[in-house]
């Protein structure tokens, strides 16, 4: 007799295990709530006389308890009670729920006893004709995530615990999936918005200038745009190098992805590599998380490296390797990652001179100098000044809600005779300011910066044949002298020059400025 009972016990355990295995196979594929619902009801069909009463999940505030799933059939005959008490949000403090959540492995309530003790919910439990309500905490690790309520006459401990564990994991997966989906949707929307913005701000038609030099630029751009060739855009500051880079990207087959931009001069030397190539967690002090670099971000798109001439030598070596191998290695990482990135780089420096001076690697220069595009300075294309000025007047007049429509001939004359050290950017800012200061329909006056006629030294400063680098060097030294050698912080040279202290430091290093220069008597 004892043997028969033991055999039955073993057989039952095997049936339970087979049933749980079946359920876990179904649940493993679940990604959404309807899928979980289908899996649960499929399995309950096999568990004789068992009904899912309710699954509740705990909200983000850890207090509110939301109905997640229930058997619609149980509503019959107790609609009002169901709608008012069962399928409305409750709290984890409700006495039955609190007991269930505090229990180790759940509780069993005898339906008849509950009815006798006046438990209002037990009335609809009773309507099912089933004897017990099994209620179990749903947990992931040590964290309560909800409760599971099942009606049945008898369920084994093994089945109950197995069901609760599988359902807990499935719900946690669904919630994580929903969060991920919402996050993805948000990123997609942001991406769309940014693309629209960029599309609005930059497109080919917004490059103004129809003189022969710009025609040559357009010809080169259209020849190279739809290839994967690296483009080197050369030109003084403010000549529109970034505008050209974006137009090349927008005219290429990569236009559906955002162009990624890195300004090599704006990054402290010690962060350049991590910015470009990414880093692994713990790669250096402060690297708390793994971060992907701009190369990975620009995969299948264009990476615009502005001010490439400022890239430190060490990063130049790494960049060369990435261009050759078409794969990156994150700082502190061992694994290489394939990238498909089109490079457009720009500089206002004479890179050949930089190579001669040992500040730029010759091999990298040759790799980058595959397809150079030279942007002419504004002073060499005086005929473009008029259409550019008109374009900026229309743009800023609209932006500021003004009705400035025309520019007076006198203003055009003034604009044409100025030398434009700051190029198109300087013209743009000048027009923006002038539009704001104008109340009439015609721009009668622009406030071109003038040096005092008496200050012969300053005039020489402008018209002498000094290179941009020499002027930059002399100006930085002047400012440093004025600040008694203080580089960063309040009253420091970086503050006056409106650049970060680190940038000024690396610029000084590049230009070979030492204390002897700014502490000298002259
Ligand atoms: N041909 C042009 N048509 C219309 N706008 C222009 C043109 N060239 C330049 N601009 C405008 O002038 C400003 C400066 O251009 P951009 O930033 O592209 O210059 P840059 O050469 O990259 O400058 P930097 O060397 O300082 O990085 C931008 O607002 C740009 O839209």
TrEMBL record:
Cited InterPro entries: AAA+_ATPase, AAA_lid_NorR, GAF-like_dom_sf, Homeodomain-like_sf, HTH_Fis, P-loop_NTPase, Sigma_54_int, Sigma_54_int_dom_ATP-bd_1
Protein name in UniProt: Fis family transcriptional regulator
This protein's UniProt keywords: ATP-binding, Nucleotide-binding, Transcription, Transcription regulation
BP GO terms, sorted: regulation of DNA-templated transcription
Organism of this sequence: Flavihumibacter solisilvae
Record GO terms (molecular function): ATP binding; sequence-specific DNA binding
Keyword hit for Nucleotide-binding: yes
Short name of any one Pfam family annotated for the protein: HTH_8
Stored CDD domains: AAA
Lineage: Bacteria, Pseudomonadati, Bacteroidota, Chitinophagia, Chitinophagales
Residue ranges constituting the Sigma-54 factor interaction domain according to the UniProt record: 207-436
């Amino acid at each position: 007799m004892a043997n028969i009972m033991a055999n039955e016990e073993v057989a039952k355990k095997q049936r339970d295990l087979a049933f749980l295995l079946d359920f876990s196979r179904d649940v493993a594929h679940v990604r959404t709530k309807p899928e979980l619902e289908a899996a649960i009801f499929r399995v309950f069909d096999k568990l004789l006389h068992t009904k899912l009463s309710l699954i509740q999940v705990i909200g983000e505030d850890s207090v509110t308890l939301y109905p997640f799933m229930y058997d619609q059939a149980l509503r019959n005959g107790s609609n009002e009670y169901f709608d008012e008490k069962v399928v409305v949000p409750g709290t984890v403090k409700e006495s039955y729920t609190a007991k269930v959540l505090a229990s180790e492995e759940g509780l069993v309530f005898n339906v008849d006893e509950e009815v006798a003790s006046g438990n209002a919910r037990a009335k609809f439990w009773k309507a099912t004709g089933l004897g017990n309500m099994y209620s179990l905490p749903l947990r992931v690790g040590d964290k309560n995530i909800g409760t599971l309520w099942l009606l049945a006459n008898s369920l084994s401990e093994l089945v109950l615990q197995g069901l609760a564990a599988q359902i807990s994991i499935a719900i946690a997966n669904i919630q994580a999936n929903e969060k991920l989906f919402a996050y993805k949707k948000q990123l997609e929307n942001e991406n769309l918005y940014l693309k629209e913005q960029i599309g609005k701000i930059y497109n080919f038609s917004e490059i103004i200038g129809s003189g022969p030099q710009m025609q040559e630029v357009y010809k080169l751009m259209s020849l190279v745009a739809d290839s994967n060739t690296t483009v080197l855009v050369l030109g003084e500051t403010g000549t529109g190098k970034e505008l050209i880079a974006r137009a090349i990207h927008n005219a290429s087959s990569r236009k559906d992805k955002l162009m990624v931009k890195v300004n090599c001069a704006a990054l402290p030397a010690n962060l350049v590599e991590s910015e470009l190539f990414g880093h692994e967690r713990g790669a250096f002090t402060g690297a708390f998380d793994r971060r992907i670099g701009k190369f990975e971000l620009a995969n299948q798109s264009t990476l615009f490296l502005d001010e490439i001439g400022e890239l430190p030598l060490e990063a130049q070596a790494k960049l060369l390797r990435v261009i050759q191998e078409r794969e990156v290695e994150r700082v502190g990482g061992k694994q290489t990652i394939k990238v498909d990135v089109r490079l457009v780089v720009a500089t206002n420096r004479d890179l050949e001179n930089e190579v001669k001076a040992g500040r730029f690697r010759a091999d990298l220069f040759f790799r980058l100098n595959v397809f150079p595009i030279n942007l002419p300075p504004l002073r060499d294309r005086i005929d473009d000044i008029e259409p550019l000025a008109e374009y900026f007047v229309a743009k800023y007049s609209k932006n500021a809600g003004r009705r400035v429509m025309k520019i007076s001939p006198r203003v055009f004359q003034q604009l044409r005779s100025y030398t434009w050290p700051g190029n198109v950017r300087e013209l743009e800012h000048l027009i923006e300011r002038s539009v704001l200061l104008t109340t009439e329909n015609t721009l009668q006056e622009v406030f071109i910066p003038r040096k005092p006629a008496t200050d012969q030294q300053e005039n020489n400063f402008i018209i002498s044949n000094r290179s941009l680098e020499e002027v930059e060097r002399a100006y930085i030294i002047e400012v440093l002298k004025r600040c008694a050698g203080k580089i960063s912080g309040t009253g420091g040279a970086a503050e006056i020059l409106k650049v970060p202290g680190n940038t000024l430091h690396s610029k000084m290093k590049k230009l070979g400025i030492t204390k002897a220069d700014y502490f000298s008597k002259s």
